[in-house]
UniProtKB/TrEMBL annotation:
Sequence ranges assigned to domain PPM-type phosphatase in this UniProt record: 111-381
Classification via InterPro entries: PP2C (IPR015655), PPM-type-like_dom_sf (IPR036457), PPM-type_phosphatase-like_dom (IPR001932)
Entries under Pfam families matching the protein: PP2C (PF00481)
One MF annotation (Gene Ontology) recorded for this entry: protein serine/threonine phosphatase activity
Protein name, as recorded: Protein phosphatase domain containing protein
Length: 385
């Protein structure tokens, strides 16, 4: 692979500078969002307060009351035809909202474990989200649908932050939800890409993010990814099955697509789009949008009853773990009748329970000297919990 044939070093530097001049990290992160995004931010913030707890049937009514408690248009700032509202004001409002106690009805279909670490980086740019049951957020379905995802940001946190609360809300709002979920997921990703453009302009920054998401219905698993955040399914007695595609510039098909779109792939401390971006597909990254698409890879698998767990993790994890190693470690604890306290041979605290599993894997990744932020999210299927 050689994307530099025919270009002198001076030519390359000039080409890089044209992009770099437009590519600034967002120092402040997602400091404001459009008026139309406010409710989705409230949904996500309120949902986080219920993590690990029963979500009340009044959830949507509660969100509407929170939404109506402020005159957001008056609070916001009008700029270039859009009203922008401070995310701090939204988050501060949610901090003061109390949650309700309620009793869980029915058996849990899935169990989640999630953890993240800044690692050796100076800034944490990973975001993740999980929704135990999307039917609690929508009256369009009576079917239990779990959602979770990981977003690995670069050049700042704004895009990853935005995606973490927008994508699942876009999925729920889609006219075809909960049917034709592959189409719904694809459309939601493009919708979020388009929705972020005005924010990128306001921030005068060009952050981007990967995205890897999964929806687990009562019959199927639907996964989608953009970039190099990967998804792995483990079935009982089977080898791990990868339900994602690594979208990186050194892959021949991706390199060809980039060059056909007018871009170049250069080796600049690793193969990069225009010598800058280490993934070939992303959400955001506006200066590179002519050749860096947000088109996702989408997979669908029928549930057969032998599913053990599904892992989504950022590349900071997969850089130091093989699929086989990661799944073998998780399985080794699943096969035990009970968890025990103590430390492993490297002095890392063993997981106390299933919920603590992701924390243990993140700690191991740090011990193995990953060079990036690390986020691990695991969905355990009830038939193997």
């Amino acid at each position: 692979m050689d994307g530099v044939i025919g270009l002198t070093r001076e030519d390359k530097i000039k080409k890089f500078q044209n992009v770099i001049q437009k590519t600034q990290s967002d120092v402040l992160g997602l400091d404001s969002i459009k008026l139309v995004d406010v409710k989705d931010r409230i949904v996500n913030g309120y949902l986080k307060k219920y993590q690990g707890k029963c979500i009340p049937m009044s959830f949507n009514d509660d969100v509407q009351r929170i939404m109506e408690s402020q005159k957001w248009e008056e609070i916001g700032e009008l700029k270039e035809g859009n009203v922008f509202v401070s995310t701090n004001k939204i988050d501060e409002l949610l901090n003061n909202v109390e949650i309700k106690d309620c009793e869980r009805k029915g058996e849990r279909k899935v169990w989640f474990s999630r953890s993240s670490s800044i690692g050796p980086k100076k800034r944490m740019e990973d975001f993740d989200v999980f929704v135990e049951d999307m039917k609690m957020l929508s009256n369009k379905t009576s079917e239990s649908i779990a959602f979770f995802g990981v977003f690995d940001g670069h050049l700042g946190t704004s895009t990853a932050d935005y995606c973490s609360f927008k994508i699942y809300n876009e999925i729920i709002r889609h006219k075809e939800f909960p049917n034709n979920l592959k189409r719904v997921v694809c459309d939601a990703i493009y919708s979020v890409e388009n929705g972020f453009k005005p924010l990128a302009e306001k921030l005068s920054a060009n952050a981007g993010t990967t995205a890897a998401i999964a929806l687990i219905t009562e019959r199927n698993i639907i996964t989608a990814n953009v970039g190099d955040t990967e998804i792995v399914l483990c079935r009982k007695g089977m080898e791990p099955e990868v339900l994602s595609t690594r979208h990186i510039p050194k892959e021949e098909n991706e390199k060809k697509r980039i060059e056909e779109a007018g871009g170049k792939v250069y080796n600049n401390n690793g193969w990069r789009v225009e010598g800058l971006l280490g993934v070939s597909r992303s959400i955001g990254d506006e200066p590179l949008k002519t050749c860096v698409t947000c088109e996702p890879s989408i997979f669908e698998k029928e549930l057969k009853g032998d599913e053990e767990f599904l892992v989504i993790a950022s590349d900071g994890f997969w850089d130091v773990f093989s699929y086989e190693n990661a799944t073998a470690i998780i399985r080794s604890f699943l096969e035990k009748e009970q968890f025990v306290s103590g430390v492993d041979e490297d002095g890392i605290c063993l997981p106390k329970n299933l919920k603590d599993m992701a924390r243990y894997l993140v700690d191991v990744a740090i011990k193995r000297k990953t060079l990036d932020n690390v986020t691990v999210s695991i969905c355990f299927f009830n038939n193997h919990c």
